[in-house]
Amino acid sequence: MALRLPPMQALRAFEAAAREQSLTRAADSLHLTHGAISHQIKALEADLGVRLFARAGRGIRLTDEGERFAQRVRGALNELAEAVREVADRSNPRLLRISVTPSFAGRWLLPRMARFAATHPDIDLDVRANMANIDFQRDDAEAAVRYGMGGWDGVVSEHLLDERFFPVCSPRFAHGRLPKRPEDLARHTLLRSEDEFWQPWFAAAGLPWPEPDRGPIFNDTSHMMQAAVEGQGIALARTSLLANDLRNGLLVRLFDIEVPGPRKYFLVYPPRLAESPKIALFRQWLRDEIARDGQVVNRKAKAPPRSSKPRRRQ
Asked: Is the whole model's pTM more than 0.85, yes or no?
Protein backbone atom coordinates (compact mmCIF):
# COMPACT_ATOMS: atom_id res chain seq x y z
CA MET A 1 0.00 0.00 0.00
CA ALA A 2 1.34 3.44 -0.96
CA LEU A 3 2.34 5.71 1.89
CA ARG A 4 -0.02 8.66 2.26
CA LEU A 5 1.88 11.90 2.80
CA PRO A 6 0.65 14.16 5.63
CA PRO A 7 -1.11 17.40 4.62
CA MET A 8 1.17 20.40 4.12
CA GLN A 9 -0.66 22.43 6.79
CA ALA A 10 0.04 19.70 9.35
CA LEU A 11 3.76 19.69 8.48
CA ARG A 12 3.93 23.48 8.75
CA ALA A 13 2.16 23.37 12.12
CA PHE A 14 4.56 20.69 13.36
CA GLU A 15 7.66 22.59 12.14
CA ALA A 16 6.49 25.81 13.81
CA ALA A 17 5.79 24.03 17.12
CA ALA A 18 9.17 22.25 16.97
CA ARG A 19 10.94 25.54 16.26
CA GLU A 20 9.13 27.56 18.91
CA GLN A 21 8.78 24.79 21.54
CA SER A 22 5.38 26.32 22.23
CA LEU A 23 1.94 25.80 20.66
CA THR A 24 0.98 29.39 21.44
CA ARG A 25 4.04 30.90 19.76
CA ALA A 26 3.67 28.49 16.84
CA ALA A 27 0.07 29.60 16.39
CA ASP A 28 1.14 33.26 16.45
CA SER A 29 3.86 32.69 13.86
CA LEU A 30 1.38 31.05 11.45
CA HIS A 31 -1.51 33.40 12.31
CA LEU A 32 -3.62 30.48 13.51
CA THR A 33 -5.37 29.65 16.75
CA HIS A 34 -3.85 27.51 19.49
CA GLY A 35 -6.61 24.96 18.91
CA ALA A 36 -5.89 24.72 15.17
CA ILE A 37 -2.19 24.03 15.77
CA SER A 38 -2.99 21.42 18.43
CA HIS A 39 -5.50 19.69 16.14
CA GLN A 40 -3.02 19.53 13.23
CA ILE A 41 -0.28 18.02 15.40
CA LYS A 42 -2.60 15.42 16.96
CA ALA A 43 -3.79 14.42 13.47
CA LEU A 44 -0.17 14.15 12.28
CA GLU A 45 0.78 11.95 15.26
CA ALA A 46 -2.23 9.73 14.56
CA ASP A 47 -1.28 9.39 10.87
CA LEU A 48 2.34 8.51 11.70
CA GLY A 49 1.55 6.37 14.71
CA VAL A 50 4.22 8.03 16.90
CA ARG A 51 4.38 10.67 19.61
CA LEU A 52 6.20 13.74 18.32
CA PHE A 53 5.86 15.91 21.44
CA ALA A 54 5.81 15.35 25.17
CA ARG A 55 4.75 17.70 27.94
CA ALA A 56 7.51 19.74 29.62
CA GLY A 57 6.03 21.68 32.52
CA ARG A 58 3.63 24.16 30.93
CA GLY A 59 5.30 23.79 27.55
CA ILE A 60 6.20 21.02 25.14
CA ARG A 61 9.38 19.28 23.99
CA LEU A 62 10.20 17.07 21.05
CA THR A 63 10.49 13.34 21.60
CA ASP A 64 13.47 11.55 20.05
CA GLU A 65 11.30 10.58 17.08
CA GLY A 66 9.99 14.12 16.89
CA GLU A 67 13.52 15.58 16.87
CA ARG A 68 14.59 13.39 13.95
CA PHE A 69 11.37 14.11 12.07
CA ALA A 70 11.68 17.87 12.68
CA GLN A 71 15.13 18.01 11.07
CA ARG A 72 13.88 16.29 7.92
CA VAL A 73 10.66 18.32 7.73
CA ARG A 74 12.52 21.60 8.22
CA GLY A 75 14.94 20.74 5.44
CA ALA A 76 12.12 19.72 3.11
CA LEU A 77 10.13 22.89 3.78
CA ASN A 78 13.21 25.04 3.21
CA GLU A 79 13.87 23.29 -0.11
CA LEU A 80 10.25 23.78 -1.13
CA ALA A 81 10.34 27.48 -0.17
CA GLU A 82 13.54 27.95 -2.18
CA ALA A 83 11.94 26.28 -5.21
CA VAL A 84 8.91 28.56 -4.93
CA ARG A 85 11.18 31.63 -4.70
CA GLU A 86 13.14 30.59 -7.78
CA VAL A 87 9.96 30.09 -9.83
CA ALA A 88 8.51 33.39 -8.59
CA ASP A 89 11.72 35.28 -9.39
CA ARG A 90 11.80 33.89 -12.92
CA SER A 91 8.12 34.63 -13.50
CA ASN A 92 8.34 38.17 -12.09
CA PRO A 93 11.95 39.42 -11.98
CA ARG A 94 10.75 42.97 -11.31
CA LEU A 95 9.32 42.08 -7.88
CA LEU A 96 11.26 42.90 -4.69
CA ARG A 97 9.67 41.49 -1.53
CA ILE A 98 10.50 43.52 1.58
CA SER A 99 9.64 42.73 5.22
CA VAL A 100 9.36 45.68 7.61
CA THR A 101 7.87 46.43 11.02
CA PRO A 102 4.31 47.86 10.94
CA SER A 103 5.36 51.25 12.40
CA PHE A 104 8.20 51.67 9.89
CA ALA A 105 5.87 50.64 7.05
CA GLY A 106 3.12 53.07 8.01
CA ARG A 107 5.14 56.13 9.00
CA TRP A 108 8.31 55.87 6.91
CA LEU A 109 8.10 53.56 3.90
CA LEU A 110 4.55 53.93 2.60
CA PRO A 111 4.61 57.76 2.29
CA ARG A 112 7.75 57.39 0.14
CA MET A 113 6.81 54.49 -2.12
CA ALA A 114 5.68 56.78 -4.94
CA ARG A 115 9.17 58.31 -4.99
CA PHE A 116 10.72 54.85 -5.16
CA ALA A 117 8.44 53.91 -8.06
CA ALA A 118 9.34 57.13 -9.88
CA THR A 119 13.07 56.58 -9.33
CA HIS A 120 13.02 52.82 -10.10
CA PRO A 121 10.04 52.15 -12.41
CA ASP A 122 11.42 48.68 -13.27
CA ILE A 123 11.08 47.41 -9.68
CA ASP A 124 7.78 46.62 -7.95
CA LEU A 125 7.96 46.65 -4.14
CA ASP A 126 5.96 44.00 -2.30
CA VAL A 127 5.82 45.20 1.32
CA ARG A 128 5.13 42.68 4.11
CA ALA A 129 4.56 44.32 7.52
CA ASN A 130 5.09 42.15 10.61
CA MET A 131 6.91 42.20 13.94
CA ALA A 132 8.66 38.84 13.64
CA ASN A 133 12.28 38.63 12.50
CA ILE A 134 12.30 37.26 8.98
CA ASP A 135 13.52 33.72 8.33
CA PHE A 136 14.87 33.88 4.78
CA GLN A 137 14.91 30.09 4.45
CA ARG A 138 11.26 29.77 5.42
CA ASP A 139 9.66 33.05 4.31
CA ASP A 140 9.48 34.52 0.83
CA ALA A 141 10.90 38.00 1.50
CA GLU A 142 14.21 38.89 -0.14
CA ALA A 143 15.23 41.65 2.29
CA ALA A 144 14.03 43.25 5.51
CA VAL A 145 14.36 46.49 7.43
CA ARG A 146 14.68 45.58 11.09
CA TYR A 147 14.90 47.55 14.33
CA GLY A 148 17.22 46.16 17.00
CA MET A 149 20.81 45.69 18.10
CA GLY A 150 22.04 44.00 14.91
CA GLY A 151 24.34 40.98 14.78
CA TRP A 152 21.68 38.48 13.67
CA ASP A 153 23.02 35.05 12.76
CA GLY A 154 23.00 33.78 9.19
CA VAL A 155 22.19 37.09 7.49
CA VAL A 156 23.94 40.18 6.19
CA SER A 157 22.92 43.21 8.27
CA GLU A 158 23.88 46.73 7.16
CA HIS A 159 23.40 49.68 9.49
CA LEU A 160 20.97 52.24 8.07
CA LEU A 161 19.85 54.65 10.75
CA ASP A 162 20.48 55.56 14.39
CA GLU A 163 17.54 56.59 16.52
CA ARG A 164 17.36 59.85 18.46
CA PHE A 165 14.51 60.88 20.74
CA PHE A 166 13.07 64.37 21.31
CA PRO A 167 9.65 65.89 22.09
CA VAL A 168 7.20 66.80 19.33
CA CYS A 169 3.62 67.96 19.16
CA SER A 170 1.07 69.41 16.77
CA PRO A 171 1.76 73.07 15.90
CA ARG A 172 -1.83 73.79 17.03
CA PHE A 173 -1.39 72.04 20.37
CA ALA A 174 -2.55 74.26 23.27
CA HIS A 175 -3.83 76.78 20.68
CA GLY A 176 -0.29 77.30 19.46
CA ARG A 177 1.07 78.20 22.91
CA LEU A 178 3.82 75.61 22.71
CA PRO A 179 6.25 74.96 25.57
CA LYS A 180 9.31 77.21 25.31
CA ARG A 181 11.44 75.53 27.99
CA PRO A 182 11.73 71.87 28.99
CA GLU A 183 10.27 72.58 32.43
CA ASP A 184 7.08 73.82 30.74
CA LEU A 185 6.27 70.18 29.94
CA ALA A 186 5.02 69.82 33.52
CA ARG A 187 1.86 71.68 32.51
CA HIS A 188 1.01 69.46 29.55
CA THR A 189 -0.13 65.91 28.75
CA LEU A 190 2.79 63.65 27.87
CA LEU A 191 2.02 60.71 25.62
CA ARG A 192 3.74 57.51 26.73
CA SER A 193 5.05 54.33 25.10
CA GLU A 194 5.25 50.89 26.72
CA ASP A 195 8.94 50.44 25.90
CA GLU A 196 10.35 53.92 25.15
CA PHE A 197 10.66 56.11 28.21
CA TRP A 198 10.74 59.84 28.97
CA GLN A 199 13.14 59.69 31.92
CA PRO A 200 16.41 59.59 29.87
CA TRP A 201 15.30 62.70 28.02
CA PHE A 202 14.35 64.43 31.31
CA ALA A 203 17.86 63.71 32.60
CA ALA A 204 19.46 65.12 29.43
CA ALA A 205 17.35 68.26 29.86
CA GLY A 206 18.46 68.63 33.50
CA LEU A 207 15.03 67.78 34.88
CA PRO A 208 15.11 65.57 38.02
CA TRP A 209 11.74 64.05 37.14
CA PRO A 210 10.66 60.40 37.40
CA GLU A 211 9.00 58.54 34.55
CA PRO A 212 5.44 59.89 34.03
CA ASP A 213 2.76 57.66 35.50
CA ARG A 214 -0.27 59.46 34.06
CA GLY A 215 -1.48 60.15 30.54
CA PRO A 216 -2.29 57.98 27.52
CA ILE A 217 0.01 55.00 26.93
CA PHE A 218 0.50 53.14 23.65
CA ASN A 219 2.00 49.79 22.66
CA ASP A 220 2.51 50.95 19.06
CA THR A 221 4.69 53.99 18.43
CA SER A 222 2.89 54.87 15.20
CA HIS A 223 -0.39 55.17 17.14
CA MET A 224 1.29 57.46 19.67
CA MET A 225 2.58 59.68 16.87
CA GLN A 226 -0.88 59.88 15.35
CA ALA A 227 -2.26 60.95 18.73
CA ALA A 228 0.35 63.72 18.76
CA VAL A 229 -0.71 64.80 15.25
CA GLU A 230 -4.29 64.99 16.53
CA GLY A 231 -3.20 67.36 19.31
CA GLN A 232 -3.80 64.94 22.17
CA GLY A 233 -0.45 65.59 23.86
CA ILE A 234 3.32 65.80 23.50
CA ALA A 235 5.16 62.69 22.30
CA LEU A 236 8.77 61.62 22.66
CA ALA A 237 9.44 60.97 18.99
CA ARG A 238 11.82 58.61 17.25
CA THR A 239 13.84 60.07 14.39
CA SER A 240 12.78 57.43 11.90
CA LEU A 241 9.04 57.85 12.33
CA LEU A 242 8.41 61.56 12.05
CA ALA A 243 10.44 63.28 9.32
CA ASN A 244 7.48 63.12 6.94
CA ASP A 245 5.21 64.72 9.56
CA LEU A 246 7.77 67.45 10.25
CA ARG A 247 8.14 68.11 6.53
CA ASN A 248 4.36 68.37 6.10
CA GLY A 249 3.94 70.57 9.17
CA LEU A 250 1.79 68.06 11.05
CA LEU A 251 4.29 67.96 13.94
CA VAL A 252 6.92 70.36 15.26
CA ARG A 253 10.08 69.68 17.21
CA LEU A 254 10.06 71.54 20.53
CA PHE A 255 13.68 71.62 21.73
CA ASP A 256 17.22 70.97 20.50
CA ILE A 257 17.84 68.46 23.32
CA GLU A 258 17.83 64.83 22.19
CA VAL A 259 18.99 61.46 23.46
CA PRO A 260 20.26 58.49 21.44
CA GLY A 261 18.29 55.26 21.38
CA PRO A 262 19.96 51.89 22.02
CA ARG A 263 18.38 50.24 18.97
CA LYS A 264 19.05 51.02 15.33
CA TYR A 265 17.63 50.23 11.90
CA PHE A 266 19.36 47.69 9.65
CA LEU A 267 18.88 46.43 6.13
CA VAL A 268 18.96 42.64 6.39
CA TYR A 269 19.16 40.04 3.62
CA PRO A 270 20.49 36.49 3.07
CA PRO A 271 24.14 36.11 1.96
CA ARG A 272 23.05 34.46 -1.30
CA LEU A 273 21.53 37.82 -2.38
CA ALA A 274 24.59 39.93 -1.59
CA GLU A 275 25.07 40.75 -5.28
CA SER A 276 21.37 41.30 -6.06
CA PRO A 277 20.96 44.42 -8.26
CA LYS A 278 17.45 44.98 -6.87
CA ILE A 279 18.69 45.03 -3.28
CA ALA A 280 21.59 47.33 -4.25
CA LEU A 281 19.13 49.85 -5.75
CA PHE A 282 16.82 49.59 -2.75
CA ARG A 283 19.76 50.07 -0.35
CA GLN A 284 20.93 53.23 -2.12
CA TRP A 285 17.40 54.62 -2.22
CA LEU A 286 17.03 54.02 1.53
CA ARG A 287 20.29 55.87 2.22
CA ASP A 288 19.27 58.79 -0.01
CA GLU A 289 15.92 59.11 1.77
CA ILE A 290 17.55 58.90 5.20
CA ALA A 291 19.98 61.69 4.26
CA ARG A 292 17.06 63.78 3.02
CA ASP A 293 15.20 63.21 6.29
CA GLY A 294 18.21 64.31 8.34
CA GLN A 295 17.97 67.82 6.95
CA VAL A 296 14.36 68.05 8.16
CA VAL A 297 14.67 66.33 11.55
CA ASN A 298 17.60 68.49 12.63
CA ARG A 299 15.56 71.66 12.34
CA LYS A 300 13.80 72.84 15.48
CA ALA A 301 10.40 73.94 14.26
CA LYS A 302 8.69 77.08 15.41
CA ALA A 303 5.16 77.54 16.63
CA PRO A 304 2.71 78.94 14.05
CA PRO A 305 1.71 82.62 14.17
CA ARG A 306 -0.97 83.25 16.73
CA SER A 307 -4.31 84.28 15.37
CA SER A 308 -5.85 87.56 16.46
CA LYS A 309 -9.25 85.88 16.61
CA PRO A 310 -10.66 84.99 20.06
CA ARG A 311 -9.54 81.54 21.17
CA ARG A 312 -11.80 78.88 22.54
CA ARG A 313 -10.75 77.41 25.85
CA GLN A 314 -9.41 73.85 25.75
From this structure: no
